[in-house]
Amino acid sequence: MNEQRDFVRGDLFKSAYGIKPKVFIKYELNPDGTFKTFILRFVYKDKEWTLTELYAGTTNMTDYCTLTGTDEKFKRFVDAELKLVEFMKNGNAY
């Protein structure tokens, strides 16, 4: 899928964290139609971050997530998202 702007996800992010970035989504599927990767690009105050969720095989279950600005592999999507919120609030960008 080509990258698309996700207005609803931006609104949900604002509801959850009080920050409203521009959110763009893109994903890749495996040949059987399960998710391979899900990529969210966030733009906030002229800075941007990419949160990538990688799936375990064809299970549609998260293997791990990565986030620009850190070498950490997050086991849970929400942990990567919370680190992203911290980056946004502190003005960190990579």
Describe the structure.
This protein has 94 residues and is an alpha+beta fold. It has one domain. It is 27% helix and 37% strand. The chain contains two helices and five strands; from the N terminus they run βαββββα. A five-stranded antiparallel beta sheet has the order 1-2-3-4-5, covered by helices on one side. Strand 4 and strand 5 form a beta hairpin. The longest helix has 14 residues. It is globular. The two termini are 24 Å apart. The mean pLDDT is 95.
Largest sheet: 5 strands, antiparallel
Ends apart, CA distance between termini: 24 Å
Structural class by secondary-structure content: alpha+beta
Helix content, binned percent: 25-40%
Task: Categorize the overall geometry.
Answer: globular
Topology overview:
Elements: E1 4-5, H1 7-17, E2 22-29, E3 35-44, E4 47-55, E5 62-67, H2 77-90
What is this entry, summarized?
The chain is built from two helices and five strands.
Key words describing this protein structure:
2 helices, alpha+beta, 94 residues
